[in-house]
Amino acid sequence: MPLFGKKESGRKSKKDLDKVPIEQKYELKELLGTGAFSEVRLAENKENPGEMYAVKIIDKKALKGKEDSLENEIRVLRRLTHPNIVQLLETYEDKSKYYLVMELVTGGELFDRIVAKGSYTEKDASDLIRQVLEAVNYMHEQGVVHRDLKPENLLYYSPDDDSKIMISDFGLSKMEESGIMATACGTPGYVAPEVLAQKPYGKAVDVWSIGVISYILLCGYPPFYDENDANLFAQILKGDFEFDSPYWDDISDSAKEFISKLMCVDVEKRYTCRQALAHPWICGNTASSKDIHSTVSAQLKKNFAKSRWKVKLHLKLRESLTEYYFYFILFYFYFIYLFIF
Predict the structure, then answer these.
(1) What whole-number distance in Å separates Cα of residue 341 and Cα of residue 337?
(2) Which of 2, 118, 188, 318 has the lowest tally of Cβ within 10 angstroms?
(3) Residue 148 CA to chain centroid, in angstroms?
(4) Could you list the pLDDT tens digit for every one of the 341 residues in the chain?
(5) Is 341 within the bounds of a domain?
(6) Considering 18, 148, 169, 229, which one is annotated as catalytic?
(7) CATH number of the domain enclosing 167
(8) How many domains does the chain have?
(9) Is 334 within a domain?
(10) Residue 56 contacts by C-beta under 8 Å, 6 or more apart in sequence?
(11) Smallest Cα–Cα separation from 136: which of 304, 282, 274, 251?
(12) How far apart are CA 271 and CA 281, in angstroms?
């Protein structure tokens, strides 16, 4: 069964185009990056020389048994059209590979750009988060939950100083209509407490992740961190974070309140994207104009060279959760034993 046979209603079908070899329309050029099952190459449109795209090339043998996840990603991307979401334009398939023709973004990763800037303020961070919230609010209105929002998935569209931010990598995203979400997935440090508690969850997990990103953007280090996953998960489950001195001394109370509303353990009290967009730190004038570049960039370089924060986890997260709950149950029965005897 062809992976790309199904199309969203109301969208122009590219079924016939999918059968055409991708090389007929695009010249595949240098390698841009690699992943577990794929590589990304620069591509030039032969019909319009100079028109460049990024093509994600997935090896069928490497993907065998996981075709559903790719089909889900494609279905999600076909549903989304927003100026701050990397667009899927076309799909191709041959005997050995799948090809996803994507909008090309060339501005680099979020943290790299902040470090390279000459100055950086709360207002800059507020503008970045506003763009992310607008895109995620749109996604949620379309019934899509990203489930893996993190700085590595936030890319600048171009090298221009005023470039917009783009959300990428929808490999773990899911549409609400496809059923209850309960799978433990995401990236340690950014994952919401309800995911770790193995409860059914929804759109609010994305808001929690945006809260974590907002925190990092204002101090350069994560709100939750431990080399041991069980300890890290315990911090997240309790919502155990602080605005440490001296790093937060010059940050506005409005920013702190905003973050606290997003990183609220109680899902019912956690802000939605729409509520977050209406907060004064986003839509008002409460974000400070004081330059915090030297402090934030120093902390970013110190804390985000650690590879554990750059690894997307799925099965490992589940394995870590199993270990965490094993020790929780072990200590629970140990204390019962002490109490009885």
Answers:
(1) 6
(2) 118
(3) 4
(4) 345 444 444 444 444 335 689 999 999 999 998 877 889 999 999 999 999 999 999 999 988 888 888 999 999 999 999 999 999 999 999 999 999 999 999 999 999 999 999 899 999 999 999 999 999 999 999 999 999 999 999 999 999 999 999 999 998 899 888 777 878 888 889 999 999 998 999 999 999 999 999 999 999 999 999 989 899 999 999 999 999 999 999 999 999 999 999 999 999 999 999 999 999 999 999 999 999 999 999 999 999 875 444 444 443 454 445 445 444 544 444 444 344 44
(5) no
(6) 148
(7) 1.10.510.10
(8) 2
(9) no
(10) 38, 39, 40, 99, 100, 102
(11) 274
(12) 14
Indicate if 204 and 310 belong to the same structural domain.
yes
Rounded (5°) CA angle 5-170-192: 140
Rounded Cα distance, 219 and 293, in Å: 9
Annotation marks residue 226 as catalytic? no
Residues 213 and 116 in one domain: yes
Q: In Å, how far from its chain's centre is CA 134? A: 14
Q: Render the burial of 202-225: b for 16+ CB within 10 Å, e for the rest.
A: ebbbbbbbbbbbbbbbbbbebbbb
Tokens encoding 243: 């605005």
From 102, 123, 148, the end of a domain falls on 102
Domain carrying residue 283: 108-326
Domain boundary among 102, 129, 157: 102
CA distance 173 to 190: 15
133 and 21 fall within a common domain: no
